[in-house]
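thread: overnight batch results

M.L. [08:02]
morning all. the overnight job finished for the chain we discussed friday. pasting input first so we're all looking at the same thing
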Amino acid sequence: MNNKVIKWIIDFIKGMFIGSGAILPGVSGGALAAVFGIYEDLIQFISNIREDFIKKVIHFLPVGFGALFGIIILAYPIEALLASHPVHILLFFMGCIFGTVPLLYKKAGIHGRETMHIVLLTATAIVSFILLVTANIYLNLNVPQNTFTWLMSGVIFASGFIVPGLSPSNFLIYMNLYEPLTGAISRLDFSVLIPVSIGAIFCVIAFSKLVNHLMNRYYSIIFHFIVGIVIASTVIIFPSADQFSGLSVLDIGFAVVLGVIGLFLGLGMSRLESKYKPED
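M.L. [08:03]
and the structure it wrote out:
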């Protein structure tokens, strides 16, 4: 098969994971973009959008189509699976993410790695985990659903792409807006989707230049910080004891198998990413 076709398929699958991850509680679309080697190029493209515009749009088309597929087509199945089989789907996603962490760690050290970077990674993972656990326990807000709310939801949703490791779905859950938004996506309710899209576009355009500037100046620091957040935000989605209760040994065994399959899928995606790199 032609290498370009294979690369297109791989990028579509990456986009699908990024899009579905963006709506999966605890998972960050930006973290998955970083894991799959897309984040840096995407930020550079958005922050300098007029430079080689057509070429870069064509380059990101499969990722974009995959992300739309992941967000729109998979929104309802993921929501349904989270309700009926949370342990299975969460372990599968954990496996997928952890399978790609070695590549992300390697990428973080591409310009060198010092002791301070390991300390930063470890401290970030620990502090992020504590903050996420605290938020899950104590945050529970009731926010009215109106146009302004959906604009802000769009900003929150896009922030998960701009700041890897930040899970917008969790914030929307804290504000009791997650289920209304996923429901609006699955039924294509444009009264919700339009303001959400406007808020998301504003967030991406407003902050991409700042992020790109920080990446250019503090690459190793930023990426080790990202690895720490990715690890914490992945560990935090491990199913709770309540979600395990009622499962048979066979069910748990099958969930573990799915986690292992996800792990090998992530490792395989990493190898393919290294083999079929974008052409300059």
